[in-house]
């Protein structure tokens, strides 16, 4: 043992030992805010399929728009017109798919 080093014999719990767990005040405050809203959404939305279709429309953002933005940034750094064209195609196609699927899922909700 090094000089000045403390010994913590009971730092790690033994297998099968239950230790009391207390959540931090921030986590408790978050739970008090989120749980009622989750319950309200569960009561007001009768079909989970509508919510899934709305979330699925956001997939166009992650599949097309974000990679298109990254490709556009790379194209600006390299000054390559081919990369800029590919980025523009990704952005236009992704925006179109996002718009169509979002309008479709919202019209199914109404």
From TrEMBL:
It holds the Pfam family Aa_trans. One of its GO terms (cellular component) is membrane. Its main location: membrane. It is found in: Membrane. InterPro entries: AA_transpt_TM. It comes from the Eukaryota. Residues 1-22 are annotated as: Disordered. Residues 38-106 form the Amino acid transporter transmembrane domain. Keywords: Membrane, Transmembrane, Transmembrane helix. The chain crosses the membrane at residues 38-65, 85-106. This is Aa_trans domain-containing protein. It comes from Macrostomum lignano.
């Amino acid at each position: 043992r090094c000089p000045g080093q403390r010994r913590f014999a009971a730092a790690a719990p033994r297998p099968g030992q239950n230790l009391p767990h207390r959540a931090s005040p921030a986590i408790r405050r978050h739970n008090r805010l989120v749980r009622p809203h989750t319950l309200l959404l569960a009561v007001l939305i009768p079909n989970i399929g509508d919510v899934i279709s709305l979330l699925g429309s956001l997939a166009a953002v992650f599949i097309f728009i974000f990679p298109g933005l990254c490709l556009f940034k790379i194209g600006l750094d390299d000054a390559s017109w081919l990369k800029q064209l590919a980025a523009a195609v990704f952005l236009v196609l992704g925006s179109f798919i996002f718009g169509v699927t979002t309008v479709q899922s919202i019209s199914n909700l109404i």
